[in-house]
Design brief:
Elements (H helix, E strand, L loop, with lengths): L5 E2 L13 E5 L3 H13 L3 E5 L2 H8 L7 E5 L7 H11 L6 E6 L4 H9 L4 E4 L2 E2 H33 L9 H18 L3 E8 L2 H8 L1 H18 L5 E6 L2 E7 L3 H16 L14 E8 L6 H18 L5 E3 L7 H10 L5
Parallel strand pairs: 1-7, 2-3, 2-4, 4-5, 5-6, 11-12
Antiparallel strand pairs: 8-10, 8-11, 9-10
Length: about 350
């Protein structure tokens, strides 16, 4: 055992390869150097903080390490307080904290664990013991990463359409409600597009349903590429898509709809095998500022405008005309929904 407080094992095998970043917070320069040398030999990317304040600042960085070795007694902020702050921040992904301490009283150790430490080592300690405890921390972090990935996969599955990868109907309607509330609160414009592929039944009947699925996937890809990052395109049902355009009044909404229409018509679709011409018709409904209850009205108006685009030749954009619909026109619109492709 040297003055560093570390007992070196006779043979220490290397663990190079994982290069997991580790924060070492230690104010003793000799012990600090010893820890850095060991961790680097084991394959960790070591970052050193000479006091608790710098350790806490390092843990707030975007690329902060997920493993932290904190000495209990440090200037400015001690290791227990750094640990307490890390847990209070409730950061994801999880940070595994190992406390180093010369204290051996059970009450002190309880205090450290209650502050949120995952494990501790009392000085002096065997270097091999530090290594295996860090490996245990890695296993916990790996499990936590798997849980996060599984949770994200479930979230995507619950909110996205399995075929196209776009938002599903439930999620895009939720976003519409949220954007209506924001529009009402901030007096910002909002537009909604209803997009429908022209003659889609003909594609299925002529080329088969697999080709139809490929067309839907390519349509979704082109629509996503033609919209802004903060727009929300979603599959509303069948070959019909709903696009929520925050901050777009009637003029901007029309321009965005034209970009989508041109993205479809500009070149043949090839995802289904033989190239085929695919176009879409788009209906628009807009508000300079929304009010509560506008969701159903916006969707209905965009739907009516879509029928108008279909009725007037397809492969075009139509805006909703805010006139009172006659009973005959309303009935005709409902009937046309079954044959407008």
């Amino acid at each position: 055992m040297g003055s560093s407080g570390v007992v070196q094992p006779a043979d220490l095998s290397s663990e190079l390869g994982h290069s997991m970043p580790v924060l070492v917070a230690e104010d003793n320069p000799i012990f600090q150097s010893m820890l850095k040398s060991m961790l680097t030999k084991w394959g960790y990317a070591t970052r050193v903080a000479p006091n608790g304040l710098e350790a806490w600042e390092a843990m707030q960085a975007r690329d902060a390490p997920r493993l932290a070795v904190l000495d209990w007694m440090m200037p400015y902020v001690d290791g227990v307080e750094v640990c307490r702050r890390i847990r209070a921040a409730a950061r994801e992904p999880y940070v595994y904290v190992l406390l180093l301490t010369a204290r051996t009283e059970s009450q002190d150790l309880v205090e450290g664990m209650e502050a949120g430490a995952d494990d501790y080592l009392t000085k002096p300690f065997n270097a091999q013991e530090l290594r295996v405890r860090l490996r245990a921390g890695l296993r916990i972090l790996d499990l936590q990463q798997q849980l996060m990935e599984a949770r994200e996969a479930l979230r995507v599955q619950a909110t996205h359409d399995a075929l196209t990868g776009l938002l599903n109907r439930g999620r895009v309607v939720e976003i519409l409600f949220a954007e209506i509330a924001r529009s009402a609160r901030e007096l910002r414009p909002l537009s909604v597009l209803m997009v429908d592929l022209d003659h889609f039944k003909r594609i299925n009947d002529t080329h088969g349903h697999q080709a139809g699925d490929a067309v839907l996937r390519e349509a979704a890809h082109r629509m996503s590429a033609a919209t802004r990052q903060y727009d929300s395109p979603g599959r509303y049902g069948g070959e019909e898509f709903l696009v929520v355009l925050p901050g777009c009044g009637a003029r901007d909404g029309y321009a965005q709809a034209e970009r989508i229409r041109e993205a479809f018509a500009c070149e043949p679709f090839t995802g289904g095998g033989a190239p085929m011409a695919v176009t879409c018709s788009i209906g628009i409904s807009s508000r300079d500022a929304c009010t509560a209850g506008d969701a159903d009205r916006l969707i209905h108006e965009a739907d009516e405008a879509l029928y108008s685009a279909k009725h007037n030749g397809r492969n075009r954009v139509a805006e909703f005309a805010h006139e009172e619909l006659s009973p005959e026109s309303s009935a005709l619109t409902k009937l046309a929904r079954f044959s407008r492709t």
